[in-house]
Write a structure and sequence with these properties.
elongated
């Protein structure tokens, strides 16, 4: 069994600046951007002083994200809410768009998450220079002692790399695990069905009879375990019979369901969690470069 893990498919190349590849990731990101903008325009129409319907749900969602931003960054950094909200929603939608089956998850490409991380880092550097001056920013690398300067510099560049690969790795890793599991179950299914077919029709018929008996017994006695095992025997017997007769062979019966459920778990759970983690880290790092104004 071999697993081929490749990057995003290249649709075409724009012949400028040495060639710009238009990839699946770029298409997915463009679709996410268009969908989010269209959704925001639609939700922003017909707002009322006394909200009802979708306006109530939208306001609750916005307030939840706004309060999260305020709690993490402080009232003085409330103006960063649109930026954080954009990253959060782009991350979620960029991960979930892979569930369409024909579009690749934008966050499964490290170029997407690395771009976001670099944006956050540039914002941090800009605010540090703005608040401390260029010389003061450079002096910050020598704190708390000058001997820590190399480590501080490495840490400054390791931060965006860590953020990018954490998000990318969890989303892309889920796809790789699902692919490996699917290939393994397909191989096991092929071996079992070939073994049943090589024994002639007898084994397939026995499995069908056994499966039917277990299903009927399980239904009568309300035994879910027997129902599941009986259904599996029926499926193996049915497809084994078809393969023995040469009607329909090679169907990966054991690969049905499990990889799809696992993929759904990674797309939904991991997509939401990684979007939240990335947004929280962005808020923590940016707020560190934007301290509250001094009183007095």
């Amino acid at each position: 069994m071999s697993v081929n893990v490749t990057g995003p498919f290249i649709y075409f190349t724009i012949p400028v600046f040495g060639g710009i590849n238009v990839t699946q990731t770029m298409l997915s990101s463009a679709v996410v951007t268009i969908l989010l903008c269209s959704c925001f325009i639609w939700l922003g129409k017909g707002l009322k002083k006394r909200p009802d319907g979708r306006q109530v749900l939208v306001e609750k969602g916005i307030m939840m994200l706004y309060n999260m931003t305020i709690e993490s960054m402080g009232e003085h950094n409330a103006h960063w809410f649109p930026f954080i909200c954009t990253i959060f929603l782009s991350s979620i939608c960029g991960s979930l768009i892979g569930m369409t089956g024909f579009l690749r998850s934008a966050t499964a490409d490290v170029s997407t998450t690395l771009t976001w991380s670099v944006m956050v880092t540039v914002i941090i550097w800009y605010n540090n220079i703005k608040n401390n001056g260029f010389v003061g920013w450079l002096k910050g690398f020598t704190e708390p002692v000058a001997v820590m300067t190399p480590m501080n510099i490495i840490s400054e560049f390791a931060q965006p790399v860590s953020m990018a690969f954490r998000h990318f790795g969890n989303v892309a890793g889920g796809g790789v695990i699902t692919m490996i599991l699917y290939n393994a179950l397909s191989l096991a299914s092929s071996l079992i069905l070939n073994l049943i077919a090589s024994s002639g029709l007898a084994v397939a018929i026995v499995l069908l009879v056994l499966g039917l008996g277990l299903v009927l017994w399980g239904r009568k006695n309300h035994r879910k375990g027997l129902l599941v095992f009986g259904a599996l025997c029926l499926a193996l017997g049915f497809f084994g019979l078809l393969q023995a007769l040469g009607i329909f062979s090679g169907f990966p019966i054991l690969a049905l369901g499990i990889p799809a459920v696992l993929s759904l778990y990674f797309d939904l759970f991991s997509g939401f969690v990684q979007a939240l983690v990335f947004s929280l880290l962005s808020m923590v790092y940016i707020s560190g470069s934007c301290p509250p104004p001094e009183e007095g």
